[in-house]
Automatic annotation (TrEMBL):
This is DUF5018 domain-containing protein. The lineage of its organism: Bacteria, Pseudomonadati, Bacteroidota, Flavobacteriia, Flavobacteriales. InterPro entries: DUF4960, DUF5018. Residues 75-207 form the DUF5018 domain. Transmembrane segments: none annotated. PROSITE patterns: PROKAR_LIPOPROTEIN (PS51257). Signal peptide: none annotated. Residues 307-576 form the DUF4960 domain.
Length: 579
């Protein structure tokens, strides 16, 4: 009871102490209220920034200051008055006469060992310029002389849907408007115009994205043909395939990462993969992490699916599209895939093969890459004999050049030759989406209209299957036009009857032509050639200029419909494996 009595006696003193504390806190609170987010710079901020006695707009989140003077003001001699927290200093100092005529000026506030830089821009009314430009918390670096703005955003941002905010002087307007989402895959042009209509200035805004915490390469050695892991950044998995008899208990991976990233366990450290997956965690420059489950497995391939090229292994193929095609097969058909170097191409090498993808690309030449003089006549004979014996073929890219030698695409004695395959220049800018026609006004047989190669393809906004909408295309067009062979036909050029005539004579299916042409009977776009005469295999021919396996040499362009290319080839492989 005595203790309780003492507590009651102390209550008045406790209330008095709390009241004094509250008064002290309230009395010391800053007069300035900040509505935006100030990140860890409580005592290194600019509380007020005045020009000619008037306060500028301050964004403490982005450390940006903007102010507009009357039209015609002299920007070379602008007096500034700056209010800071106690003990803070600023450079240039408060009371300085500052030259803003060349663009933004950096003001550095320091206090207790912490510094913060503010970017201040002062403009005259009606002066067409962008005073500040930001995307979220990311502030753009403005180069007024060059007319450029550079912004770096985080790795998780959607670069196709970024919403910038900018400030321009009074008396001006700008397009695109501030606060409107834009696709910054390529630089975006912003134009500021004075309301008098006589002056204006354009800026090109480029966005750089910080790299995600990704593994870019996971190998077992420095040799380019050492075992290379299949990296799936979406599934966060890496798979290494080893031949029979390999020791999985001690593998020392050589790992490459996105710029600035680190990984644990470290590269060059031996690990035991014989008991199951080993986890590797990547951390990028933002501190974001990604954990990969890395699996090593023994693969005894059936060798049903083959790819031929000149390099000693898939990883050493020098041409990006050719390499990407081979890697796609290797990654998606590991237990059935075999890579055959052209110099080792023999009938025995194809003994177990049911599908051969005859494809390559090149620049300045149509020869198979990584070969001294291209694929040889003897090697073409091996492929032809394989096909005649019942082997399945997918022929596309520069491989189409050898349709003549194979001899399958002909009506009677007329051989249909390819005359396309642009190689130099590589390509150019094109804003269209290229692809395959979906339906035809004249109608077509079910074998064409409902062909299994089209199953699961994404359709476009109009009547077609888009395959490539990259803004820069290589344009490898190998379309075989029936026009030069009119004497071989009795039916009219580009008519459905001509398509039926060709199909009957060659035991083929003209599946689709290019998206812009409403007729099947114009030539060979995408077609299936069924067994006929000496040729007992099935061959898929794809002449489309839209085919690109890699965007690595397309000036940074992106193809939103790459999955349609993958699905088309999966369908073709499934069809040929079923024969």
């Amino acid at each position: 009871m005595k203790n309780i009595s003492k507590i009651f006696k102390m209550i008045p003193f406790l209330f008095f102490g709390i009241a004094i504390t509250l008064l002290t806190v309230v009395g010391c609170e800053n007069d300035i209220k900040f509505n935006d987010n100030v990140p860890d710079y409580t005592y290194s901020i600019i509380r007020d920034f005045k020009v000619n006695g008037k306060s500028a707009i301050i964004s403490h989140t982005n450390a940006v200051i903007t102010f507009t003077l009357p039209a015609g003001s002299d920007l070379t001699k602008v007096p500034v008055t700056i209010t800071l927290p106690e003990g803070a200093t600023v450079e240039p100092a408060s009371g300085s006469i500052v030259d803003f005529s060349a663009g933004p000026v950096i003001f550095t506030v320091s206090n207790n060992g912490i510094s913060r830089k503010y970017t201040a821009t002062v403009a005259a009314y009606g002066d067409p310029m962008i005073m500040s430009f930001s995307i979220g918390e990311h502030v753009g670096v403005i180069d007024a002389d060059a007319g450029t703005i550079a912004v770096t955003v985080g790795s998780q941002e959607d670069i196709k849907k970024l919403t910038p905010l900018y400030i321009i002087p009074g008396g001006t307007t700008a397009t695109p408007q501030s606060g409107i989402a834009q696709d910054f895959t390529n630089p975006v042009k912003y134009t500021v115009v004075s309301n008098d209509g006589f002056t204006g200035k354009s800026y090109y805004v480029s966005v750089t994205q910080l790299p995600s915490p990704f593994v870019t390469s996971f190998k077992t050695g420095t040799d380019i043909c050492s075992v290379t892991g299949i990296v799936d950044n979406t599934a966060s998995t890496i798979v290494m395939d080893f031949p029979s008899g390999s020791n999985l208990s001690s593998i020392t991976p050589i790992i490459s990462l996105t710029a600035g990233s680190t990984i644990s366990p470290a590269t060059g450290v031996a690990k035991n993969f014989s008991t199951g997956p080993v986890n590797y965690t990547v951390t990028n420059v933002e501190g974001l992490t990604k954990t990969y489950a890395v699996t090593a497995r023994i693969i005894n391939s059936t060798k049903k699916i083959a790819f031929v090229s000149g390099a000693s292994c898939v990883e050493s193929i020098s041409e990006p599209d050719t390499k990407a095609a081979a890697l796609w097969l290797k990654q998606n058909y590991a237990e059935d895939f075999v890579y055959i170097q052209a110099s080792n191409l023999t009938a025995q090498a194809l003994a177990n093969t049911k599908v051969l993808l005859l494809y390559w690309d090149n620049v300045g030449t149509q020869k198979m890459p990584d070969t001294a003089s291209g694929i040889t006549t003897a090697q073409v004979d091996v492929i032809t004999n394989y096909y005649k014996a019942g082997g399945g073929l997918i022929v596309e890219g520069f491989g189409i050049n050898f349709l003549d030698e194979i001899g399958r695409v002909k009506m009677g004695s007329t051989v249909f030759a390819n005359n396309g395959g642009n190689t130099n220049p590589v390509g150019g800018q094109n804003l269209d989406a290229w692809g395959l026609r979906a339906t035809y006004s004249a109608g077509s047989p079910s074998a064409s209209a409902n062909h299994p190669l089209l199953v699961g393809l994404t359709k476009g906004t109009t009547d077609y299957y888009p395959m490539n909408n990259a803004k820069y295309k290589e344009d490898r067009n190998f379309g075989i036009d029936f026009g030069p062979y009119d004497s071989a036909f009795t039916k009219g050029q580009c008519s459905e009857d001509r398509a039926l005539e060709f199909e009957a004579a060659t035991n083929s299916v003209l599946i689709r032509w290019y998206e812009w042409l409403d007729a099947r009977g114009c030539g060979i776009g995408l077609a299936e050639f069924k067994p006929q005469g000496a040729f007992q295999g099935t061959m898929i021919v794809n002449t489309g200029g839209w085919l690109e396996w890699s965007m690595a040499d397309n000036n940074g362009a992106v193809n939103d419909f790459q999955n349609n290319i993958y699905r088309l080839h999966k369908n073709a492989i499934d069809l040929l494996l079923s024969k």
